[in-house]
């Protein structure tokens, strides 16, 4: 793909800027959202600002991968940046929450391209040994942006305007697109006419959309939402059957089913799905434990994930080297074992747990993330030919995103049902004048509301939240054990660089 080391360096810089852009966007917007709600209103649809972005970015992953396989990487990477920047600019111009949600959905489509095509391009232009180092560098960029994002988002919102949180993306995006446009040289020759699988693309879009919306509703809690989400999940079964049938008949399927005959692809996708269920699900609830159970400030709860991110970045930088020495399978088994230990320690947390011990637990969880994800990605990339590199990489990331959504939904359901049952049980220990407070246990999380509650109610609500979160972490522990067991099914590899073999064959 590239002729010189200089071209590789420039393309890598462009990809890193694009990845930094996508990661920075997500964390900076989180910080600005309270101010955005105070200006635009629409608190009841607050969560859809995030859900819309996640929904469209997840849906688009397999499409970006497959289209880049058929037509080349560069054009679709630039198209993705353009869509992302248009969505950013329009989000900054929003005058209502509905407009913001719509433009965030457009932004998410482009964000899906930035994340997956960056991995695909690096997987194509670097050898396995080089990728083991480069992917660690990309992981460091993601971790750095996760730390810088909240600080930058807060500063821009406080000193300028929340709209500039979105406008800041534009110069970074333009720089990344210019670098990739001029530096990435492709010599792809199409050997035959390509037939776009429109039917499969439409069915897959409907299937993924329905599945993600159902999972999002499932995590909301109320019985009505749960019933609707169950019906939507059941409706996904015939859609899946239709999709499989269309893929078998399509000449150039949007998701080649033959990939699932690849042992590395299949087992790595399953393990990544289970790890993401456990990890990203728990990340959503750890700040809630810190603020609601231990009783710290919102600022301290917001920074609790920093140790996790730092250990993730550090171990991402060395996991590639460990993989080259010990192989995919051993490193992934080792990482999922640490993940299981970390979740077991989370199940032991309670209202008397010192803050420092919680930080230690998060360091363990972060290290497992850094160890696991790069070998999982490289195992998939190195098990397929260049023809299927894009769709294999993007589908692997798709399963990871889907696992994160599943994890949050299942853990949210566990917490909701646990709190509901505990509220009924503890109602006998509360004065009748305070019984209605049990219907709003979220009061214990808000420091101002907490000060207005009498000590008896605080004690009951804190125990209620701690008990429900214990079940959440137990659920995560079960998922981590499942990931650990699935890692044993990853094949014992013959460590051969398939990309290098292809280069030799071409030459």
Tell me what the structure shows.
There is one protein chain. With 507 residues, this protein is mainly alpha-helical. The chain has three domains: 1-190, Growth Hormone, Chain: A; 195-251; 258-507, Growth Hormone, Chain: A. It contains 19 helices and no strands. It has helices spanning 5-40, 48-71, 74-92, 97-125, 128-159, 164-167, 169-183, 198-218, 223-249, 263-283, 286-294, 298-302, 306-326, 328-347, 355-381, 389-426, 447-452, 455-487, 498-506. It is globular, with a radius of gyration of 23 Å.
Set down the secondary structure blueprint.
Elements: H1 5-40, H2 48-71, H3 74-92, H4 97-125, H5 128-159, H6 164-167, H7 169-183, H8 198-218, H9 223-249, H10 263-283, H11 286-294, H12 298-302, H13 306-326, H14 328-347, H15 355-381, H16 389-426, H17 447-452, H18 455-487, H19 498-506
Structural key phrases:
Growth Hormone, Chain: A, 3 domains, single chain, 507 residues, mainly alpha, disordered C terminus
């Amino acid at each position: 793909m590239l002729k010189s080391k200089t071209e590789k360096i420039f393309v890598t810089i462009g990809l890193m800027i694009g990845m930094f852009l996508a990661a920075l966007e997500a964390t900076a917007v989180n910080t600005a959202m309270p101010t955005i709600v105070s200006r635009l209103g629409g608190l009841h649809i607050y969560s859809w600002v995030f859900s819309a972005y996640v929904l469209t970015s997840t849906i688009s992953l397999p499409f970006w991968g497959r289209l880049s396989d058929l037509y080349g990487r560069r054009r679709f990477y630039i198209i993705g940046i353009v869509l992302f920047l248009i969505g950013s600019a329009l989000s900054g111009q929003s005058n209502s929450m509905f407009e913001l949600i719509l433009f965030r959905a457009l932004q998410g489509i482009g964000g899906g391209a930035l994340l997956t095509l960056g991995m695909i391009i690096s997987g194509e232009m670097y050898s396995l040994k080089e990728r083991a180092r480069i992917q660690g560098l990309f992981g460091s960029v993601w971790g750095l942006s996760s730390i810088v994002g909240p600080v930058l988002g807060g500063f821009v919102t406080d000193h300028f305007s929340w709209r500039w949180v979105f406008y800041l993306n534009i110069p970074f995006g333009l720089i990344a697109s210019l670098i990739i446009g001029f530096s990435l040289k492709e010599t792809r020759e199409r050997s035959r006419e390509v037939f776009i699988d429109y039917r499969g693309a439409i069915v897959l879009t409907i299937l993924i959309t329905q599945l993600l919306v159902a999972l999002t509703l499932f995590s909301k809690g109320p019985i009505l939402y749960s019933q609707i989400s169950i019906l939507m999940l059941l409706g996904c079964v015939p859609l899946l059957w239709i999709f499989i049938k269309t893929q078998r008949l399509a000449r150039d399927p949007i998701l080649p089913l033959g990939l699932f005959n690849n042992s590395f692809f299949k087992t790595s996708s399953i393990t990544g799905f289970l790890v993401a269920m456990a990890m990203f699900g728990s990340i959503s609830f750890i700040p809630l434990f810190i603020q609601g159970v231990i009783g710290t400030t919102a600022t301290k709860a917001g920074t609790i994930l920093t140790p996790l991110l730092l250990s993730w970045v550090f171990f991402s930088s060395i996991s590639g080297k460990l993989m080259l020495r010990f192989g995919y399978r051993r490193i992934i088994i080792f990482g999922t074992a640490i993940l299981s230990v970390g979740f077991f320690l989370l199940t032991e947390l309670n209202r008397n747990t010192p803050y420092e011990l919680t930080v230690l637990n998060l360091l363990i969880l972060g290290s497992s993330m850094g160890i696991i994800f790069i070998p999982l990605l490289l195992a998939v990339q190195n098990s397929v030919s260049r023809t299927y590199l894009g769709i294999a990489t993007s589908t692997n990331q798709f399963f990871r995103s889907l696992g994160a959504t599943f994890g949050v939904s299942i853990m949210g359901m566990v917490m909701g049902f646990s709190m509901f049952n505990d509220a009924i049980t503890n109602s006998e220990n509360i004065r009748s004048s305070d019984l209605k407070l049990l219907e709003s246990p979220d009061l214990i999380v808000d420091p101002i509301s907490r000060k207005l509650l009498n000590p008896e109610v605080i004690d009951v609500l804190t125990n209620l939240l701690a008990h429900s979160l214990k079940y959440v972490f137990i659920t995560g522990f079960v998922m981590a054990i499942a990931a650990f067991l699935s890692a044993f099914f990853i094949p014992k590899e013959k460590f051969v660089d398939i990309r290098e073999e292809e280069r030799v064959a071409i030459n």
